[in-house]
Design brief:
Blueprint lengths: L4 E6 L4 H15 L4 E5 L3 H4 L5 E2 L1 H5 L4 E6 L1 H11 L5 E6 L9 E2 L3 H9 L4 E12 L2 E5 L2 E6 L5 E7 L2 E8 L1 E5 L7 H4 L11 E7 L9 E4 L3 E8 L4 E5 L2 E6 L4 E14 L5 H13 L6
Parallel strand pairs: 1-2, 1-4, 2-3, 4-5, 5-6
Antiparallel strand pairs: 7-8, 7-18, 9-12, 9-16, 10-11, 10-15, 12-13, 13-14, 15-18, 16-17
Length: about 280
């Protein structure tokens, strides 16, 4: 058995995920697998003896299983902060794009995973440098403000001035995050295997309203030309900065997220099914 220690990260706001986590703990322990739980999840799961702070949660851990939606996977990625531990995502969300295992298939799929019958899909991370500190995101970084007027942002690509955006902000996504904030701002769907990043203006006051597709190795520098209110930076929906304007740099990271996969890669078939759920697109062949 290749996985001897497994950490569980659960969306404790989903009753079905909490119930399934309790079942899963017993199922794993019967197979002599050490189980760890994130400290903040323990009060709801009532398993104090399995509680771990972040460092202990990741130390000597072979696999992380998330039970929730995409947000739960993003939470696991934040905890990892670049550490190379595999993630198996179990679907208890609504429209998730990262989940591999359906609730009904959980134990059959887990048997295969524990026997090594799976493959690993690497997903690229974005890296944001702010005041000499590095931040990572699996989906996106969103630049915005809390004022009443549009902001002006100067963009530089690989050191060359590109454009000064007049907009409510910018969304910078990698292929995984193309289906998140960037999509709602008018950006494209992107095959997760593409080696690109996407720059999408948010409510631009300009004819320059289209997304720009960057090579994954391009370096994007942002400087605030004018702003009303506080300057806000979020990474995967979590606040990184809220205050005075600062210069930032965003690029593709060398760090990767390792997702456990059990089925053949079929992004566009998967996308078709998701579109059918989201907006009633015809799913027929």
């Amino acid at each position: 058995m290749i996985y001897k220690t497994i950490a569980l990260i659960t969306n404790i706001n989903k009753e079905k995920a909490v119930k399934k986590t309790s079942e899963l703990i017993k199922w794993l322990e019967k197979r002599n697998i050490k189980v760890k739980l994130a400290q903040e999840d323990v009060p709801e799961l009532k398993c104090d003896n399995l509680a771990c702070e972040r460092t202990d949660l990741l130390t000597d851990t072979d696999l992380i299983i998330t039970l929730g939606g995409d947000g739960t996977v993003l939470r696991a990625v934040r905890l990892l902060n670049g550490k190379r531990i595999k993630i198996l995502a179990v679907d208890f969300g609504k429209f998730g794009f990262l989940q591999e295992v359906a609730e009904k298939d959980l134990y059959n799929d887990l048997e295969n995973v524990l026997e090594g019958k799976h493959h690993i899909e690497e997903r690229s991370l974005l890296e944001l440098n702010l005041n000499d500190k590095k931040h990572l995101a699996l989906n996106d970084f969103v630049i915005s403000h809390d004022g009443f007027r549009i902001m002006h942002l100067k963009t530089y690509i690989n050191g060359t001035f590109f454009y000064e955006y007049a907009a409510d902000g910018l969304a910078i996504a990698n292929p995984t995050g193309a289906s998140a904030y960037s999509l709602s701002a008018g950006g494209p769907f992107v095959n997760p295997r593409a080696k690109v990043n996407i720059l999408t203006p948010i409510n631009p006051h300009s004819l320059m309203s289209r997304s720009i597709v960057l090579d994954s190795e391009d370096v994007l520098d942002l400087k605030v030309a004018s702003i009303n209110g506080n300057f806000i930076i979020t990474g995967d929906g979590i606040d990184i900065h809220h205050g005075e304007p600062v210069d930032i740099q965003i690029k593709g990271s060398e760090e990767k997220v390792l997702l456990v996969k059990l089925r053949p890669y079929d992004y566009f078939g998967f996308l078709r099914k998701k579109l059918g759920i989201l907006c009633g697109v015809n799913g027929a062949d």
